[in-house]
């Protein structure tokens, strides 16, 4: 009879040992903060952030926006103090929204040489010439009815609006804007703006197109900030229907064909899939707008102690970059500059 032998389990028979000596362990590169930083794939860089500002006529004005904590409507003199702080914090770009003293059906405040954005741009470039000024080119803040184009009855007219938008773009460029950013969503406005900029000698001024701008519920706080709520109806006939991604890519492709230098997806967080798909179809820089509603929800949750604001903002903005954005417009920019310093 053969002797009975007992078998002792070897390391290779254990659950851990059966993996094999050369098996990859993903946790190896997560063991310390320095290791995690060494292999980190996506970074937030201050030069990639754009900080929006809301400018009003007058002096000594700093009016809090109730739905957007720490964001204000500001007169130019007060705005310049914040711009100085922005520059000292290491941010390189601001986006200007103007709230005129008077609105009219011709949106004259958008294209007059003494319009609020034009005046603010001149003052910023005079004092901070290296800071990039992005001029929002739209008509809603300047129209008495609050829509982004010329209105006839209850219809927003496309082609008559292009002339006003192009005129506003040239006026902003004349004031010293570094980038023109049309946000109206009228068809063919990029071609119209590019044509007029070139004719006026501004062929070197880039256009950042709000290419895939969705008719979103996340813009609510911005309506208060820019005083731009439409007086009737909504913007669904010109801003994009939220369920559509193929249409968004067509919009981006059309803007590129018309001469856009940078394309944009707005809002950012609910449309990360659009950003990712846009990254696949173009090598142009892609901007994403981390909009007012996204900002305000984080602020409200943080104020109630429900989330760690710093951690959530860093994670959210990193996610926008990870999806494929090269540039992020965000009201969190000043906080990010502080946290990343």
The total of helices stands at 12
Please report which band the strand proportion falls in: under 5%, 5-15%, 15-25%, 25-35%, 35-45% or over 45%. Answer: 15-25%
The H-level CATH homologous superfamily, spelled out, is Aldolase class I
SSE series: HEEEHEHHEEEHEHEHHEHEHHEH
CATH level 3 topology = TIM Barrel
Helix content: 25-40%
The N- to C-terminal Cα distance equals 78 Å
Radius of gyration over C-alpha positions, nearest whole angstrom: 25 Å
Compute the average pLDDT.
91
Q: How many individual β-strands?
A: 12
What would CATH call the class? Alpha Beta
Number of domains: 1
Q: What global shape is seen? A: globular
The major pleated sheet works out as: 10 strands, mixed
pLDDT < 50 stretches? 1-7
Q: Output the structural class.
A: alpha/beta
CATH architecture: Alpha-Beta Barrel
Describe this structure as you would to a colleague.
- By secondary structure, this protein is an alpha/beta fold.
- The protein has a single domain (44-340), classed as Alpha-Beta Barrel (TIM Barrel).
- The protein contains twelve helices and twelve strands.
- Strands 1, 2, 3, 4, 5, 8, 9, 10, 11 and 12 form a ten-stranded mixed beta sheet that branches.
- The longest helix is centred in the middle third of the chain and has 17 residues, at 159-175.
- The chain is globular and about 75 Å long.
- It starts with 32 loop residues before the first helix and ends with a helix.
